[in-house]
Design a protein that fits this description.
By secondary structure, this protein is an all-alpha fold. The protein has a single domain, classed as Chorismate Mutase Domain, subunit A, CATH 1.20.59.10. Helix 3 runs antiparallel to helix 4. The protein is elongated and about 55 Å long.
């Protein structure tokens, strides 16, 4: 991964702001897919499967290492994100079953 060289603090901050916008957009897109996944599950227990969570976290840790980024940081971020998205998926699952 090559990061363009910035020539001022303002350029650095503008680049970070752009990345932050993209990160939030990607998280929103991920959450949209998570909600869709609820349509393919039959029970709440299927929503939160520890094997899948462990797989996703380990994959993210490995990707972090590829980019010379702290795998502990990435794991912590992913665990928070997954916990919140599981709750969102459970709500979506329950709403779909009530229809």
């Amino acid at each position: 991964m090559k990061t363009p060289k910035c020539n001022s603090l303002e350029e650095v901050r503008a680049a970070i702001d752009l990345l932050d916008d993209q990160i939030v957009e990607l998280i929103a897109k991920r959450n949209s897919y998570i909600k869709q996944a609820a349509n393919f599950k039959n029970t709440v227990d299927e929503v939160k499967t520890q094997d899948r969570i462990d797989y996703v976290v380990q994959k993210a840790r490995a990707k972090a290492l590829e980019y010379n980024l702290s795998p502990n940081l990435v794991e912590e971020l992913y665990r928070v994100m997954i916990d919140e998205m599981v709750e969102s998926e459970i709500a979506e699952f329950r709403n779909a079953k009530d229809l």
